[in-house]
Amino acid sequence: MSAVNKPLQVNPLKLSAPMGATLAFLGVKDTMPLMHGAQGCASFTKVFFTRHFCEPIAIQTTAVTDITAILDGGDRSIIEAGENILKKATPKLIAILSTGLSETKGDDIKAASKGLKKVKEIESVYVHTPDYEGGLESGFAKAVESIIDQLVEPASNIEISTVTILPNVNITPLEVEKIKDFISDFGFIVKALPDLSQSLDGFLGEKQGAISSGGIDIKDIKKLASSEVVISIGQSMKRAAKKLVDKNRAIEHLHVDSLNGLDFSDKFVERLIRYKNIKPSTKIQRWRSRLCDLMLDSHFIIGKKSFALALEPDALVGLSKAISEVGGEIEIAISPTKSEALKEVVAKEVIVGDLEDLERACKNVDVIITNSHGYRIANRHKKIIVIRGYPNLEEVGNALSSDLLYEGSTYFLREIANVISKEEHSV
Prior knowledge:
- By secondary structure, the chain is α/β, with parallel strands linked by helices.
- It folds into 3 domains: 13-149, Rossmann fold (3-Layer(aba) Sandwich), CATH 3.40.50.1980; 159-281, Rossmann fold (3-Layer(aba) Sandwich); 283-426, Nitrogenase molybdenum iron protein domain (Rossmann fold, 3-Layer(aba) Sandwich).
- It has 16 helices and 14 strands.
- It has helices at residues 17-25, 39-53, 66-71, 75-88, 100-105, 109-120, 136-151, 173-184, 218-222, 238-247, 261-276, 282-302, 313-324, 355-361, 375-381, 405-426; strands at 2-3, 31-36, 60-61, 93-98, 123-127, 159-167, 189-192, 227-233, 252-256, 306-310, 329-335, 350-352, 367-370, 384-387.
- The strands form 3 sheets. It has a 6-stranded parallel β-sheet with strand order 1-12-11-10-13-14, with helices on both faces.
C-alpha cells in the first residue's frame, strides 16, 4: 500500500466522516441525526443520500454561522436545535454529530448531549466526526462505537442463540436482510446494528416520516450485551465489536473481513457450522452450487480482463477477492483513506488516492468499478464501468442490490460478465 505523493485531491473519491455517521444513525428506529456545524454540511448530506436511495432522509442541523461560531460555546445551539426538532417530530433518540467546524472550535458535544437529556428528557448520543479525519467508512464505524458505548447496558448473562451483526458502511439494506436470514437458517435470532434493512430498503410505507422510519429499536440496542455472539463484518467494525464484548465478557466474537465471493462465504459458513454443529440448509447448499457453476461460466469472460477499483477499504477487500477468484486481474485498487483492511486487498497495486489516480490508471485496464463519478472517466477513455459504492446516481433501487454470500456473489459475477460481454458485442 502506498499514498500518492501530491499536495491535494484533484477529483476527490473521499466522502466525509459525518456522512458515514449519519447513515449509521438512519438504521436506528425513531432517530434524528443532528449535525453540529454549518447548514451546508447537513444539506449536502441530505441531498446526497436522498439521490442515492431515492428516499426521504431525516437530518437536522445546528446551522452554525460565522457569528454563532464566535459567540456561542456550542451547548446552547445544540439544545435549541433539539427543542426545534421536538416541536415538529417525536424522535426517541437525537444523535449529535460533530463536523470540522465544531471540532476546530472545540465545542463540548458530550456536555451538550448531557444537557439535552436533562432539558428534554430524551435519549441522546454524541460522536466526534471531524471532516478532516477519516472518511465515510470510519465515520459509520465511529457512530456504531458511540451507540454501543453510550446506550448498550452492561450484562453478565447471555441469551442462547442470539446474534448481533455489525455490518460496515458498504453493506446495502438488502444485504443486511440477506445476512440476517442466512444466519437465521443456522438457528440464531439475529439483530443488526445498525439495521438499514428496515429503514432504507425501498419499502413504500403509508407516509413519509420526519424521523428515521425503521431500524433497530433503542430498547433492543440496550439489551445487545446479552447476545451470545457478535459478528463484525469488515475491518472497520472490529473495534465496535470489541466494545460490545467489553460490556459482557461472555460474548463470543466472530470476525469476517468480507462476505463477497466463494472463499469468504465458505469460511463464514464453516465458522457457523462449528459453532452450531448443524449442516447448512438445502437452500444455502444450492446457492453455493450455483455460485460454483457461475464461476466456471464467467471465468472465460472475466478472466481475460484487467480491472481498476476505486472504493472504500472494506469494499475493496471483498470485491477484489471475488473478481480474482474467477481469474480477473486487479491492476490497481484505490482507497480514499488509509486502513488496515488495505493489506488484504488482492491487487497488483494498492494506493490511497482519488479519481484522478483512477483516470491515470485507465490506459492499463479494461473495466472500472467505482461510484457514479467514474462515468465521465470511463466515457472519456472508452472503458467498461460497473457502479458500486456511494453515490450511484444513474440507477434506481440501490438499496436492493446484493453482492454478498453465495447468492449475492453469483449475481455480482453474472452482472460483471454480462456487462463485459455486451460491451464486446456492441463494438
